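A quick aside before the break. I want you to see a complete sequence-to-structure record at least once, exactly as it would be stored in a machine-readable document. Don't worry about memorizing anything.
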Amino acid sequence: MKAIIVNKPGNSDVLEYCDVPKPNLKKGWSLIKIKGFGINHSEIFTRQGHSPSVKFPRILGIECVGIIEETTEPDRLPIGQKVVSIMGEMGRDFDGSYAEYVLLPNQQIYPIQTKLKWDILASLPETYYTAYGSFLSLNVNKDDSILVRGATSGVGIAFTNIVKSLYPNIKIVGTTRNLNKRAQLINKGYTDVIIDNDGTLETTQTFSKIIDLIGPKSIKNSIIHLKKQGIVCSVGQLGNAWYLDEFDPIMELRDFKKLTSFYSGDVDEALLNEIITMVEDNRIQDVKPEKIFKLDEIQQAHAYLENKDHSLGKVVVMNEL
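That is the input. The structure line, written in tokens, reads:
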């Protein structure tokens, strides 16, 4: 099969398109023929060598959509069954989805029933699952004023799409480091756009709900922009910081403010299928990838996502449309 091998950490040119043996079936694992997968910032971090537990060579990729090719659980995962997989240790402890086929543990393969096109489906798993989980964690309602910190990211666009689909008149503001993206963000549904100057927002506005995709680098500044009884949900680490230092929750969370999160590694099969159904029923509208690449264009896909001046929304790689 064709796959993308990373033999050593580095920039995007370490992603090598080559022939490798198709994985052999083993007890408790099934083989998926991959139709498509999303590209995630965490895979870029791993490719760069920022995941100490990952050993090279490795096929990256933490998510995929496809069909069962070979199975060890025929009742739940029959051959031909459409499936999704997210997270677990795919692409980290064992080879992941940057390939034509992937061998995965049965417990992290989720059967789905859908007629969605493969490119639409490939836009959903990690991105919309995270966005919808964050939406629920924030307990969003129609009277909220919302800030999306990291608005140009795939999860930021997905979250905004969910919110605006369910509450069309809600106020939702996005942040960016590049004001040249303002028109694109307004077109994606944002009410307004604020500059994020290296972790500090250039505004005095406050919001009832904030989804923070930058992470520990910006959390304390986000809390400053919360209204009384507001909630901030930290679900990303785009700021390349993994831990929150010098944080006094008693002082930082005054005025009944709350800090929460959502971890996409805790996969709820019912929640995943709920999102797919909401897209299929058009309750969540205009779901589509921002950019589609082929497997042999993986270097360009990574380069696009890393380009802070041009990247916007979800990037997917398709083996088949």
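Two observations worth writing down. The radius of gyration is 20 Å. The CA atoms of residues 207 and 226 lie 5 Å apart. We'll return to this after the break.
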